[in-house]
């Protein structure tokens, strides 16, 4: 009996530990290791069968990776001109319909399916937002977009009205179709071509411009969902995600900044914040810096009755906190270079010269050791 299934189950979780922009490389390395083991054992399992089994087993890990890393994808907005807009993949965006995972667009009233390996999106359907949460969500999203444009060269922000309990009309996973659903727009990328595209290219191509999205929201003409999905009514907590990714494979480094901010309109003076930062250098080595921190930010001047002022106050609190985090990390990195890394180096002898181990016998201590 082949040990392939057990090997796949033990290797697939490594996808979650992939550094920024390198999940595709890790996936290909895992496939190569599996095939090498099968060849060594003289297995009759073909390379195609290995890839099929790996793809099936890796899907959950790829989904978790994309949601945790706030991967940016492109999706057709459903307008007559079929503009491609970008959005963030995250847990708050995920819903279930008839047992299948779908994702909400951060700005547009649509949901879609995604291939977590190729990042191709498809099956776009309408999704009704919570009208009571939408004014603040839209205002905060616009304020963050302006902030991102000033601070993040390749950044993206998305604000979601968190789903509390069951959506209107029952649990999304239990919604039954009222009529045969129409097929949504074609996939935003051909799977066979996307399979070969490195993640840094896939993510970079997903960072489309934001200027068409507000127009698309008004012109959206997507197929009706199997059953109309709605977010819960009433004031709902908002979750904002900020992600900035810099990939420089030519110089062997990559980095990603992720910020998550949860705001409850019923507690307007507090903003829960969580930061996740990773930097990876891999030229002739493998060095990673991982930083995580959670805190509550004080918000002044935020009022649930005034969406614009609340959005500005929330964004101001984020700008101040992120500035302090960035400054603190910079100081820590400087201290690492001056103290920690220096302490890790091997000390020179009193002669201040490196020991020539090939001529150790010529040293007095070498003569003593040879007796």
Report on the structure:
The protein has nine helices and twelve strands. The chain is of the alpha+beta class. The protein folds into two domains: 4-64; 69-339, Aspartate Aminotransferase, domain 1 (Alpha-Beta Complex). It has a five-stranded mixed β-sheet, with no helix packed on it. It has a five-stranded antiparallel β-sheet with strand order 7-9-10-11-12. It is flat, with a radius of gyration of 25 Å. One of its GO terms (cellular component) is actin cortical patch.
Flag low-confidence runs.
164-198, 207-212, 214-220, 223-229
Mean pLDDT equals 77
State the shape. Answer: flat
Helix content percent band = 25-40%
> What is the name of the CATH architecture of the largest domain?
Alpha-Beta Complex
Total count of helical runs of at least 4 residues: 9
Number of strands: 12
Q: What is the CA–CA distance across the termini?
A: 58 Å
How large is the share of residues in beta strands?
15-25%
Strand order of the largest sheet: 3-4-5-6-8
Report the CATH C-level class of the largest domain: Alpha Beta
Keywords: Actin capping, Actin-binding
Protein name: Subunits of heterodimeric actin filament capping protein Capz
GO biological process, one term: actin cytoskeleton organization
GO molecular function, one term: actin filament binding
């Amino acid at each position: 009996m082949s040990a392939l299934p057990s090997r796949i189950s033990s290797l697939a979780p490594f996808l979650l530990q992939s550094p920024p922009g390198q999940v595709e490389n890790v996936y290909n390395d895992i496939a190569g290791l599996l095939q090498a083991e099968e060849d060594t054992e003289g297995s009759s399992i073909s390379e195609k069968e290995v890839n099929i089994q790996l793809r099936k087993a890796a899907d959950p890990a790829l989904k978790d990776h994309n949601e945790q890393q706030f991967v940016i994808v492109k999706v057709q907005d459903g307008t007559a001109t079929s503009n491609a807009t970008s959005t963030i993949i995250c847990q708050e965006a995920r819903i279930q319909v008839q047992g299948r995972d779908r994702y909400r667009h951060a700005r547009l009233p649509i949901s879609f399916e995604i291939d977590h390996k190729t990042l191709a999106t498809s099956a776009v359907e309408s999704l009704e937002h919570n009208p009571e949460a939408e004014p603040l969500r839209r205002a905060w999203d616009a304020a963050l977009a302006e902030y991102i444009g000033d601070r993040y060269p390749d950044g993206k922000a998305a604000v979601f009205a968190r789903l509390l309990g069951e959506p209107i009309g029952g649990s999304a996973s239990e919604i039954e179709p009222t009529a045969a659903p129409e097929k949504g727009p074609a996939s935003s990328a051909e799977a066979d071509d996307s399979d070969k595209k490195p993640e840094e290219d896939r993510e970079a191509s997903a960072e489309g411009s934001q200027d068409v999205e507000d127009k698309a929201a008004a012109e959206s003409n997507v197929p009706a969902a199997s059953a109309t999905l709605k977010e819960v009514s009433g004031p709902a907590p908002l979750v904002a995600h900020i992600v900035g990714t810099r990939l420089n494979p030519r110089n062997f480094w990559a980095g990603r900044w992720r910020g998550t901010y949860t705001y409850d309109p019923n507690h307007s003076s507090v903003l829960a914040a969580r930061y996740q930062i990773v930097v990876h250098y891999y030229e002739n080595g493998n060095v990673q810096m991982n930083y995580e921190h959670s805190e509550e930010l004080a918000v002044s001047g935020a009022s649930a009755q005034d969406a614009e002022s609340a959005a500005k106050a929330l964004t101001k609190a984020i700008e101040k906190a992120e500035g302090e985090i960035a400054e603190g990390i910079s100081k820590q990195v400087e201290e690492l270079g001056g103290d920690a890394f220096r302490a890790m180096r091997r000390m020179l002898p009193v002669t201040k010269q490196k020991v020539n181990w090939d001529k150790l016998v010529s040293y007095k201590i070498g003569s003593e050791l040879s007796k």
